[in-house]
Write a structure and sequence with these properties.
The complex is a heterodimer of chains A (159) and B (282). By secondary structure, chain A is mainly β. Helices cover 9% and strands 21% of the residues of chain A. Chain A is extended, with a radius of gyration of 20 Å. Classes of the chains: A mainly beta (159), B mainly alpha (282). The interface between A and B is large, with 60 and 48 residues. The complex binds iron/sulfur cluster (SF4) (2 copies).
């Protein structure tokens, strides 16, 4: 579902313009407010929705399953390091989702690849990525799941 | 003394009488009022405002008492109006404060000079205030215009690329910068030609500023406080504009199925993302 901007809430700070990976959040030249110039090209990554300090960006559901009357709102709490979503269905049902912000600080924790030994011939010919995350190593214990790791689903954050 | 020199007194040399200046001020006030009313009618902002309030009322979980509402009004005035707290970016906030207070001081002192000292060459504190207001407005304005404007900051455009949204800021830059130059050339250098040139540019900027309210951002100074007050009310009465409730990080981490990636140190797992990092991709 692509995003759109409530221009009355936007104050033209430009954070969404900075963050949009599809380069489709831009500033209107008449009112200096942001708008999604091409919703068809939206990755639906919702980076802009989360980044907007004025809560001016919402998600527009496709008309066939989510007609008028719904709301998808997000609050990004910098102090608490939390992202909370509220999905409101047309019939009024509400679903709240909450998760910690997981983006790493920019420029930190960059792997020092110089120090990593070069891949062997065998590794080069393998189907796996050189840096295959261990959480998804099919050749080594399979995908990490709650079950395989001896964890239980708890109420709260679901991915 | 240049510092207390009243540039309006020198206008007699160009055949501009105090009466003409006073009529200009009255016309400017009328033009602003008319511009704001037309803007409200055209954008239907008052209608939208009421509809939004009614819609949100249905979601409210509690009634606010009148004392709560009064305290919110006071908070809105102290925070959003007097200290521009709604700006997330501190540089934009400082620039806005400079422009706002500069503009207020400049406009009030101009009116006082025109109505009470139209013919006195020296106007004491009011002439000094006129300069201070103009300088604050010019400093905040040029800083915003060349560095902080979103077209430059986020869109990566050159600062001199203009759009219709620039009408307000450009006319503010015009009145402050040309006003100071006019005062300088007329009062200090004594150059009637350059004085007249900058006065004409000042006058054109003032006409655009006060006459162009309908097309420019001028009216935001009346809408913004009302919108900020409404936002406070909606946050307090439980409707929260459909936003999710407030959570504490500790509760969320405790509930989290982030257990799966528990071997990653917490400081590497959780960052603060773009608000803490200046974008530098241009
Ligand atoms: S959801 Fe992502 S791709 Fe779509 S406009 Fe927002 S930032 Fe850009
Ligand atoms: S981040 Fe929000 S307030 Fe800032 S320009 Fe985008 S929509 Fe407007």
């Amino acid at each position: 579902m692509p995003t759109f901007v409530y221009m009355t809430r936007c104050d033209g700070c430009g954070y969404c313009v900075d963050v949009c990976p599809s380069d489709i959040m831009h500033i209107d030249t008449t009112w200096r407010r942001a708008y999604n110039i091409e919703p068809d090209m939206c990755w639906e990554c919702y980076s802009c929705v989360k980044a907007c300090p004025m809560h001016a960006i919402d998600v527009r559901g496709y008309a066939d399953f989510c007609p008028l009357g719904h709301a998808v709102r997000v609050h990004r709490d910098e102090e608490e390091g939390i992202i909370a979503w509220r999905i409101k269905f047309r019939g009024g049902r509400i679903k709240d989702l909450v998760a910690p912000i997981t983006t790493k600080p920019w420029g930190k924790f960059i792997p020092d690849l110089k120090q990593v030994p070069a891949p062997t011939k065998e590794q080069r010919e393998s189907q796996l990525l050189f840096n295959e995350p261990k959480y998804i190593r099919l050749d080594d214990g399979d995908l990490y799941t709650l079950e395989s790791q001896g964890l239980k689903m708890r109420q709260g954050v679901y991915y | 003394m240049f510092i207390t020199y009243n540039p309006f007194a020198g206008l007699a040399a160009y055949g501009i009488t105090p009466g003409m200046m006073q009529i200009f001020v009255v016309l400017a006030v009328v033009a602003v009022a008319l511009g704001v009313i037309l803007d409200v009618l055209h954008k239907k902002s008052a209608v939208y405002f009421n509809e939004h309030t009614e819609r949100m009322k249905k979601l409210a979980t509690r009634q606010l008492s009148s004392s709560e509402k009064t305290s919110m009004l006071v908070q809105t005035i102290l925070n959003e109006v007097l200290t521009s707290s709604e700006f997330h970016n501190p540089k934009r906030r400082i620039a806005h404060l400079l422009k706002m207070y500069g503009f207020i001081i400049f406009v009030i002192s101009s009116a006082v000079l025109i109505f009470f000292y139209p013919t006195s060459e020296s106007a004491g504190i009011w002439a000094i205030l006129w300069r201070i207001g103009a300088i604050m407005l010019a400093v905040g304005g040029w800083w915003f215009f060349t560095k902080l404007r979103v077209d430059v900051l986020a869109e990566g455009k050159k600062w001199y690329k203009l759009a219709r949204a620039d009408m307000f800021i450009v006319s503010l830059l015009g009145v402050s910068t040309f006003g100071l130059l006019w005062c300088f050339f007329q009062g200090v250098v004594g150059s009637a030609g350059l004085g007249l040139l900058f006065f004409v540019l000042f006058l054109i900027s003032a006409v655009v500023l006060f006459g162009g309210v309908y097309w420019s951002k001028f009216a935001h100074m009346f809408f913004k406080p009302a919108a900020a007050y409404q936002k406070r009310i909606l946050m307090a009465d439980g409707s929260r504009e459909n936003l999710p409730p407030f959570y504490r990080r500790a509760e969320v981490l405790d509930q989290s199925t982030m257990d799966l990636v528990r071997d990653i140190p917490a400081d590497q797992k959780f960052g603060l993302c773009i608000m803490k990092d200046e974008p530098n991709h241009y």
